[in-house]
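Please go through the protein record below and see whether the fold suits the sequence. Record follows.
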Amino acid sequence: AFLSQYPSPMEKHDMAVETVEEKTDLSTGIIYRRRIAMCWNVIPEILRKVSVLKVPYIYLEEESWLDMQKRNMAMKTRCLTWTQYASLGEESVFRASSENPDWTDFTQKGRISVTGAGLRNCVLEAFARSFLKQGVKK
């Protein structure tokens, strides 16, 4: 079942998140988690005129690898909704800073590709890029 701690003040768009897989590699100690998030559809109403975009929420898959020995965590997130039209993904890495072990270095990459929406491809890609940039600022 989905957890009821959402939405939260930090993640206003998340409705629910469920851990669907969790395991620890006994040889390395790395903890792997795969979660599915149900989020409100944030696409502007003007773009929801396209019937396929007119859904109340979207699903995201998040995978993470936590290595407590090396003090780092890697995450990959991808959109599970509209996969026939768009590819949207993020990769993030959190690790102890080499300058100060009490600090965290954070790197993130994102990719967006929209196809099959005709002239709307560029508009949808621009919106997605803007939305991802807002998330980075948080």
